[in-house]
Design brief:
heterodimer, A: alpha/beta, Rossmann fold, 2 domains, 22% strand, B: mainly alpha, 11 helices, 0% strand, binds adenosine-5'-triphosphate, binds magnesium ion
């Protein structure tokens, strides 16, 4: 909101490297996330999205490079970073034995809020969980668990929110609900970094999109900028603007060990690109 | 951050105590086996055992039974810790601005509460079965202190098991030898009735000194040097297990 806050990126990542045994997962990742924006990190299975999010949320130490979150270095001042963030991990982190309401109360108390009951009830209502609030989380459907999970992360209004594949496993309606929540967060000034494998999710939601591939960010820009990477469709083909999916598949097509992108599809995307040159 | 250690530990202990309240079977299961053993030894085998004292057999064996109760109770501690580590909830806690050691201490306090309840249940059954003592309040407090120290020492062993386990069975399997240890001690039969090498082991392993101390306290007899041997063992195990567990935990979360 203030000018100087807007100038300083909320998240700054420089040369982050991480390997597990002899597997180089991150090989020098650089990017900035502007305060109050939604930043989408796209990548195939195993690209290292979760690893990066875990480094930024102080759960894992990088081998090299620096990262600052809300101005605090993740390695030197992890406590301050934790004060500034909330993490919604790839797999719902709720306590199955507790009720939805108790889960929210637990987090509210751990964040030392003055009015945990009000906060819990407010969030239950906001995430359409009021009726299920007094049921054990173990009895929730996948979508309900995810909503509870995200609600738990929003307690205490941290200025930066990490969402690791927030809509995986949700039905279309629930996805749209999560998207709305994310937009609300960003319009309230929260910085959101989300990872996703759904290209349309990035397309609909993100202010900027970065593609993580083979350990580095191979592209980083707005949707419009990424679309310009592919020349417009040629006249021989049916007039169609390249979708983000085309861009993505073309960019990651060069023989990577990605296991999601069907080879035939990426091949055709490359062909489209070559033909139109 | 550190100013919240106590508060955070309190909140997290409340959480895992709630887990126990929601599945009280963990406490019942903990108490059932020792009670069954007690029935077996008192009403089936006890008649054939000569303890060499004029105490009733239930008086003789209760200290060992209480140790078995605790040794099986702490299996649930590593079980609960393992489940937390497996689920995402542990990482959620680690990414929050809470005192990081609170997460472990909450499990330790929960273990203490659960074991105190189990021990109370088993003692209650022993009273029904005819356990009697004229022990003073001070002696009772001494027994309670020894049992609490025993619980804490084994709980930190359980924390190591919970932190290192790869499977859910592995998380509790470590407790089997601990449960078995009282059988090769003075808990059920005098060590003098055992063959040489076994007797040597029995006389020099920690359970015997702990059992003898508690037995003497209940019987209003002097505890002698045994209490110091027992305390030395307990403190040594506690300190060693605590140090190893904390080092492992640090490595795990960084
Ligand atoms: N603790 C670990 N030990 C060893 N290898 C690991 C560890 N964590 C991650 N990896 C490996 O690092 C690579 C990147 O994993 P990561 O979970 O970051 O990918 P991702 O982009 O989040 O994938 P997905 O879309 O499937 O969630 C994978 O090959 C994974 O097997
Ligand atoms: Mg992932």
């Amino acid at each position: 909101m203030t000018a100087d806050k807007a100038l300083q990126p909320s998240i700054r990542v420089r040369g982050i490297r991480k390997s597990f045994q002899n597997l180089d997962v991150l090989r020098g990742v650089d990017f900035d996330v502007r305060a109050g924006s939604i930043f989408a990190l796209l990548g195939s299975n195993g690209a290292g999205k979760t690893t990066l999010v875990r480094i930024l949320s102080t759960l894992l130490k990088a081998d090299a490079g620096t990262a600052t979150v809300n101005g605090f270095d993740v390695a030197a001042r992890p406590g301050d970073v934790r004060e500034s963030i909330s993490l919604t991990g790839q797999f719902a982190a709720v306590d199955d034995v507790l009720t939805g309401r108790e889960n929210l109360l637990l987090v509210a108390r751990l964040r030392h809020l003055k009015n945990p009951d009000e906060v819990a009830d407010g969030l239950l209502a906001c995430f359409s969980l009021s009726e299920a609030g007094n049921r054990k989380a173990a009895t929730y459907s996948g979508g309900m668990r995810r909503r509870l999970d995200i609600a738990m992360s929003l307690i205490g209004n941290p200025p930066i929110v990490f969402l690791d594949e927030p809509t995986t496993g949700l039905d279309p309606a629930a996805r749209v609900e999560v998207w709305q929540t994310v937009r609300q967060l960003a319009s309230g000034g929260t910085t959101v970094l989300l990872t996703t494998q759904y290209l349309d999710e990035a397309e609909h939601l993100a202010d900027r999109i970065a593609i993580l591939h083979k350990g580095t960010i191979i592209q980083n820009g707005t949707l419009a900028e990424l679309k310009q990477l592919l020349p417009p469709a040629t006249v021989e083909l049916v007039e169609k603007e390249p979708s983000l999916e085309d861009v993505f598949l073309a960019l990651v097509a060069d023989g990577g060990e990605t296991d999601t992108a069907g080879d035939d599809r990426s091949d055709s995307a490359v062909r489209v690109r070559k033909e139109s040159r | 951050m550190t100013t919240h250690v106590l508060g955070d530990t309190g909140v997290l202990t409340g959480r895992s105590l709630r887990h126990i309240l929601r599945s009280p079977d963990t406490i019942i299961t903990t108490a059932v086996t020792p009670i069954a053993l007690m029935l077996l030894f008192v009403y089936v085998l006890g008649g054939a055992i000569t303890t060499g004292s004029d105490e009733s057999y239930v008086n003789y064996m209760l200290p060992g039974i209480l140790l078995i109760t605790i040794a099986s109770g702490i299996a649930y501690t590593s079980f609960r810790l393992f489940l937390d580590l497996q689920g995402g909830i542990f990482e959620r806690f680690q990414s929050m601005p809470i005192a990081r050691s609170s997460v472990l201490w909450a499990h330790v306090f929960t273990s203490l509460v659960a074991n105190v309840v189990s021990v109370a249940i088993v003692t209650g059954v022993a009273l029904i079965m005819g356990f009697r003592t004229g022990a003073s309040v001070a002696a009772w407090l001494a027994v309670a202190a020894i049992l609490i120290l025993f619980t804490l020492a084994l709980t930190w062993v359980a924390v190591i098991a919970g932190l290192t386990a790869k499977t859910i069975d592995g998380a509790s399997a470590f407790s089997y030898p601990l449960i078995f240890l009282p059988f090769i001690s003075s808990a059920f039969v005098p060590t003098s009735s055992m063959p040489g090498p076994v007797a040597w082991f029995a006389e020099n392993q920690p359970v015997t000194s702990i059992v003898n101390t508690i037995r003497a306290l209940f019987a209003e007899e002097p505890v002698g040097v045994e209490i110091w041997v027992a305390l030395a063992w307990l403190v040594a195990v506690f300190v060693a297990a605590y140090a190893v567990a904390i080092a492992m935990y640090r490595r795990k979360i960084s």
